[in-house]
Amino acid sequence: MQTVIIGGGIIGLLTARELVMAGHNVTVLDQGQIGAEASWAGGGILSPLYPWRYSEPVNQLAKWSQQHFAALAAQLIQEGGTDPQWTQSGLLVLDRNEQSEARQWAQSYGLPCELVDVQRLAELEPELAIPDKSALWFPTLAQVRNPRLVKSMVESCEKHGVQLRPQTQVTGITLRGQRATAVETSRGSVAADTIVVASGAWSARLLSGLGMQVPVRPVRGQMIMYHAAPGQIRHINLYEGHYVIPRQDGRVLVGSTLEEVEFDKSTTADAREILAGFAHALFPVFRDMPIEHHWAGLRPGSPDGIPYICAVPDIGGLYLNTGHYRNGVVLGYASARLLVDLILERQPILEPAPYRLAS
Fold first, then answer.
1. pTM of the full predicted structure?
2. Are residues 268 and 314 in the same domain?
């Protein structure tokens, strides 16, 4: 069985790995470098931000991934790949206005959650500068260092025989009757029994060539990074829609913006100032540190953030795994497993109906 996956981000790579391990011959096509778009640009938090604001379909995908991601990271390391640095760093939610709702949500999902007072908060995060506030502490929530995860996934896919073809622009999908049979590219036609569109923010533009309207759009997110001492910032901190993510080597990510600017990936001085101001207010130690890096990525926005993980109606052999919005890393493993369940016609890990594209 020959499968072609359009899109070499984390969603495409996870799907490719699942399929090749199930016996498919898999080729991954990407218009640029493998994993260099949203998968590289994000923060790698293994939880939706404010998950109680999301619908059940998003949270069910996240829950499955959270339960299995540590094992995936261990498998990648055992294969001899790059350590993706799965780290159970815990999450502090510093907003106070939704604490009751958040605690009820955590209880319903069996997720440990603690309301901590000012003294406990100071113990958890000594550099934090928001006195006289309680916070919610989610001790089991984890993160991965997403650029390292992408690198490890590339290594794993290559080890298992996936063909990776970067710098390959897809120009169309060939139909024979009501079945997709090939992917047309800047380097020629690639025949396929199964085609998976996992091209993130670019998915809708590709599928419009088939007369399909898929509501996935690019949403720019900008981030900045500081280089603190390892352990100086201890946990993921979330406040007023922005977050701070400490890595093992002391680097700290601060994000992010939400901007409807089509396919513009440029960075702006305004966003840099907003993110730095947030970082300085939360952690004054950053005021004496230069910003080490400032970048932007394009998320695949979708209605309510629910991805499309499904067969395309009325076109045989064509599938979608796209539209994960801000949650591609945390939803990615479950999304890949669910789509492969559908392709192989085996018992799905989750009820697939919420992720279907309307016909």
1. 0.95
2. no
